[in-house]
Specification:
alpha+beta; 4-stranded antiparallel beta sheet; disordered N terminus; disordered C terminus
Length: about 575
């Protein structure tokens, strides 16, 4: 065998094989690609031969001749990913130079197919006929106060998050003192924060059950017991007087959220979570933090009225205003979450920025997202060794690819999730409402989970949208995840009060940037120069100054001693 590598050097290889007794039955050749995708799994498939070893050598040499540089920290530009954002250019600093012009997608008579496609893509959208026939449609704030006077709620943006009861009528009649933010769509006018009634987890069970008798879920949940029950159990109410609203923030949820307007009209502005290239760019994602970080540049502006719902993915930043010109009295909205399906394609495409956000550092969302590529119920040790990643992917193909066509399809994934001893986690029905439903209903939810998880897994990994997952696609997803998680583990074990560890963090970020984002070609569209990293070094003296580390220790309950860094795998 003659072979010339990328440097122009020619190699000659000679192979000697011992003849076998007899002649094998003729078999259709599967090609080198098939051999590559099955390397390390042939004992299970019963394909072991000297010719197979020759094919592996040939493939390895071919790969050496045409090296492929993997750059998993590069994201698809949001203007290319989201069709409504085509041509959108952000403006910084935001001074209301224009009205956000991206058209929000609106639907009526939403089909299940449309619903699942929009959710998996992470596209924000409005359903205009979502809550038209709801029992609570057009209820006024006063109606809630009369029906549940002992309900206990908090006043958002008030000092100490003050509490009040629904029966205290002052809250729906008197506009309390608020705050001013020039970048908010109120343009600096005083905005009174909303009142939030957490029925789902802060009220006695008796009160919650009473409210649930007035509750229903969106019609597009009717065919999915898991979503209907999750909405029925997880709702909260938001009450806003004219002139009230919320400042720009990103919620702490790892899954999709629905906001249904029951009375009044609410104006929304929103934007994709800003690109955060490293931990040094982290910022406070809750109310007003994005303003202070000068990263706010809204893409959409739209209204949601009675009976309409707005759905959005984790990480999408939003602000609201209840305009006095449209609302003569207190308005009511309700929000809740759902899990089927998951916005997997969105998470996969924007994973680099999400890994530097509060969703990972504070909310631990990556623990819920990891299985979309690993198909494991427990976290796997992060590694950047390609041989180990290839072995993991090969092992999954050995277990799942039952027809040996080099692709994972929906049927194969459902079968694997339903039957494998390693996927009991996927069959578990673990919700706060699980014990409240019959065994028959739990079996229905379990099957819904399996079907949706299989489709979510394909959506996460299927980069060419052919409805299946190839070996290379799963390897690319696995590699991206491990690069990000490997970096995250190295960073989070540093001492945030140590100047030396601050320099280590900067070196880690620069190393991963150079290798996995910038690349050997040094494309200026993706590469940050030396001046950028020197500016970060001058700006940050200690990691404790960074929002990501503040989020990390807040998530740990403040028990972690920053002077005692976490010790993890030494090979990281």
């Amino acid at each position: 065998l003659s072979f010339m590598n990328g440097s122009g050097r020619e190699w000659f290889f000679f192979f000697f094989f011992q003849a076998e007794d007899g002649i094998r039955d003729a078999q259709e050749s599967r090609g080198l690609g098939d051999v590559y995708k099955r390397q390390g799994i042939n004992a299970e498939y019963g394909e072991s031969s000297a010719m197979h070893m020759l094919a592996l050598v040939m493939l390895a040499l071919a790969q050496a001749a045409q090296p492929s540089e993997l750059l998993p920290l590069r994201e698809t530009p949001k203007q290319e990913y989201f069709k409504p954002l085509t041509g959108h250019e952000p403006v910084f600093p935001w001074r209301h130079q224009r009205v956000p012009a991206a058209p929000i997608i609106r639907r009526t008579n939403l089909t299940r197919t449309e619903f699942e496609a929009l959710v998996r893509s992470g596209q924000p959208f409005v359903v205009d006929d979502c809550a038209e026939k709801w029992p609570l449609r057009d209820w006024k704030c006063e109606d809630f106060g009369k029906n549940w006077p002992s309900g206990n709620m908090k006043a958002e943006y008030s000092e100490g998050q003050q509490r009040t009861t629904l029966g205290d009528g002052r809250w729906w009649r008197e506009l309390r003192k608020g705050d001013r933010q020039k970048q908010h769509l109120s343009e600096g006018a005083m905005v009174a924060g909303p009142y939030i009634w957490h029925v789902k987890d802060e009220e006695p069970l008796e009160t919650k059950r009473d409210v649930q008798t007035h509750w229903t879920s969106p019609y597009f949940f009717n065919q999915t017991a898991a979503n209907w029950l999750e909405a029925w159990d997880s709702f909260e109410f938001w009450f806003s007087l004219p002139g009230g609203g919320a400042f720009a923030h990103s919620d702490s949820y790892c899954e999709m959220t629905i906001s249904a307007q029951l009375s009044g009209v609410k104006t929304w502005r929103l934007m994709m979570f800003p690109e955060v290239q490293n931990v040094f760019e982290s910022f406070e994602s809750f109310d007003t933090g994005v303003y202070r970080a000068n990263k706010w540049s809204p893409e959409y502006e739209f209204e949601v009225g009675p009976g309409q719902c707005f759905l959005f993915p984790p990480g999408y930043m939003h602000e609201t205003l209840v305009k006095p010109s449209q609302n003569p009295e207190c308005t009511v909205a309700t929000t809740f979450q759902f899990n089927l399906p998951f916005p997997t394609k969105y998470i996969r495409n924007f994973l680099p920025r999400l890994f530097s956000s509060h969703l990972v550092w504070a909310e631990n969302c990556h623990s819920r997202w990891e299985a979309f590529h690993s198909l494991s119920g427990t976290p796997l040790r992060p590694t950047i060794e390609m041989s180990e990643l290839e072995a993991r992917v090969a092992s999954l193909f050995a277990q799942i690819d039952s027809n040996r066509d080099k692709h994972l399809d929906h049927r194969e994934l459902v079968e694997f999730l339903s039957q494998s001893k390693t996927t009991r986690w996927a069959r578990a029905v673990r919700y706060s409402w699980s014990h409240q439903v019959s065994e028959e209903k739990q079996r229905q939810v379990q099957q819904e989970q399996l079907e949706s998880r299989a489709a979510d897994t394909i959506s996460y990994n299927d980069m060419d949208d052919d409805g299946e997952v190839s070996f290379d696609e799963l390897l690319a997803s696995t590699h991206q995840w491990n690069v990000l998680n490997h970096k995250f583990h190295k960073l989070k074990r540093l001492n945030p009060r140590s100047e030396a560890d601050t320099k280590k963090a900067l070196a880690i970020e620069k190393e991963y940037h150079d290798k996995y984002r910038c690349g050997s070609q040094h494309d200026p569209r993706w590469c940050m120069g030396e001046d950028y990293f020197k500016a970060l070094e001058r700006r940050v003296q200690h990691l404790a100054e960074l929002q990501a580390y503040q989020d990390l220790y807040a998530e740990q309950g403040g028990d972690e001693d920053p002077d005692e860094p976490e010790h993890e795998h030494d090979e990281m």
